[in-house]
Amino acid sequence: MIGPPLRLNLKAQVTRGNLYCVITVTMNLRSRSQLLGCLLALRFLALVLWAVHGAKALDNGLAMTPTMGWLHWERFMCNLNCQEEPDSCISEHLFMQMADLMVSDGWKDAGYEYLCIDDCWMAPQRDSKGRLQADPQRFPGGISRLADYVHNKGLKLGIYADVGNKTCAGFPGSFGYYDIDAQTFADWGVDLLKFDGCYCDSVEHLTDGYKYMSMALNRTGRSIVYSCEWPLYVWPFQKPDYTEIRQYCNHWRNFGDIFDSWQSVKSILDWTSSHQKGIVDVAGPGGWNDPDMLVIGNFGLSWDQQITQMALWAIMAAPLLMSNDLRHISPQAKALLQNKDVIAINQDPLGKQGYQLRKEDNIEVWERPLSDLAWVVAMINLQEIGGPRSYTISVAPLGRGVACNPACLIIQLLPEKKELGFYEWDSNLKTWINPTGTVLLRLERTSQRTSKLLL
Ligand SMILES: *[C@@H]1O[C@H](CO)[C@@H](O)[C@H](O)[C@H]1NC(C)=O
Ligand SMILES: *[C@@H]1O[C@H](CO)[C@@H](O)[C@H](O)[C@H]1NC(C)=O
């Protein structure tokens, strides 16, 4: 009887930014390909150990996995017309209805916890003491009563403000009021702040403002997730310092607002893959790249495109902030957004963001390492003509050459769940991918013997 060629036991444990590894490697090499496999495995170890020195995250104990919730912007924008459109204007009524549904329709159980207000909640002026106030017609109970309502449902409340002189929609900005505003939000019981970057006249004001607000939130003593748009507004002038941004923010937007269209989703994926060298390694527990809201359940994406968004937001370890109407959503979109297997990938405790592995012939392959040495692989078919295309991939290079070494169990999670079986290191995997759709796979490493036994 011959033992497995390579036994590799790696236990990786992440505790608040520190990574501990216990490694045992037993080698019994019998061929060149096994030596290659082994070298690739060691390269992977080097990669994991390297992560120990990753950038320090904002120390507020929050967002250890990407934030999940609902955010009003993409679907409801700045609708102030409560006279004619009482069900879609930005009002406490809208947020109370969403809070009710987040609990009754399984969203909270699936992990969607933060109910977030975006721009246009404010009255046009601060009060006599210089504090922000909610629009009295649209939020008659004020934000503090809404926060109580949301907390009583077991949810958390997010709010929006701006680092500059005005919000993007022209409401009062926080420049000159950072301490007052942080304290006001804490007094109201707010749990997340999305801090926008409009109407800011210099990169210095922007950088100082984002940092100052982070410290002002900390000084309130309340745990408040801090969602920044800092790098997005720095990019036109210089390359953002992501190591610094991670020390102050729980997540940060890099790219423009998402729209309800395939063109928009595609442009976000293109931006992310073309900048991945600079942004992937900085993400991790406590601090995440934010590619913006999930628009699944709206009007602009086909079913396959919705699958692509869900799969790739999981690969990118993105905050999952839906912007849709939970009162009117198809059972299909709801099932996709509540897919436990895909959410588990997004929320994987190792917290390493995935990346684009290759792009060839209009197919993109992305992968992401998971805890327990599993990997997830996504294949997108970007060809917008014709029907489903077959794509054959050699499993050997997947997961830095170790995902299927010596063998792996492959489970397809999207478009529907099915077990594809065991694949040895030298085998190929053939899949069919719909136009603009994605096939999402989970790869679990197994020893050759186990796979032979089970086959
Ligand atoms: C404030 O920062 C300190 C040190 O960085 C940290 O220990 C503490 O938990 C933070 N408090 C809040 C409320 O975020
Ligand atoms: C806000 O406006 C004042 C007065 O015009 C200006 O001095 C200040 O630099 C502005 N701040 C920002 C962040 O744009």
Automatic annotation (TrEMBL):
<dbReference type="InterPro" id="IPR002241">
    <property type="entry name" value="Glyco_hydro_27"/>
</dbReference>
<dbReference type="Pfam" id="PF17450">
    <property type="entry name" value="Melibiase_2_C"/>
</dbReference>
<keyword id="KW-0326">Glycosidase</keyword>
<feature type="domain" description="Alpha galactosidase A C-terminal">
    <location>
        <begin position="351"/>
        <end position="437"/>
    </location>
</feature>
<dbReference type="InterPro" id="IPR000111">
    <property type="entry name" value="Glyco_hydro_27/36_CS"/>
</dbReference>
<dbReference type="InterPro" id="IPR013780">
    <property type="entry name" value="Glyco_hydro_b"/>
</dbReference>
<keyword id="KW-0458">Lysosome</keyword>
<comment type="subunit">
    <text>Homodimer.</text>
</comment>
<keyword id="KW-0443">Lipid metabolism</keyword>
<keyword id="KW-0325">Glycoprotein</keyword>
<protein>
    <recommendedName>
        <fullName>Alpha-galactosidase</fullName>
        <ecNumber>3.2.1.-</ecNumber>
    </recommendedName>
</protein>
<dbReference type="InterPro" id="IPR017853">
    <property type="entry name" value="GH"/>
</dbReference>
<keyword id="KW-0378">Hydrolase</keyword>
<dbReference type="InterPro" id="IPR035373">
    <property type="entry name" value="Melibiase/NAGA_C"/>
</dbReference>
<dbReference type="InterPro" id="IPR013785">
    <property type="entry name" value="Aldolase_TIM"/>
</dbReference>
<keyword id="KW-1015">Disulfide bond</keyword>
<dbReference type="Pfam" id="PF16499">
    <property type="entry name" value="Melibiase_2"/>
</dbReference>
<comment type="similarity">
    <text>Belongs to the glycosyl hydrolase 27 family.</text>
</comment>
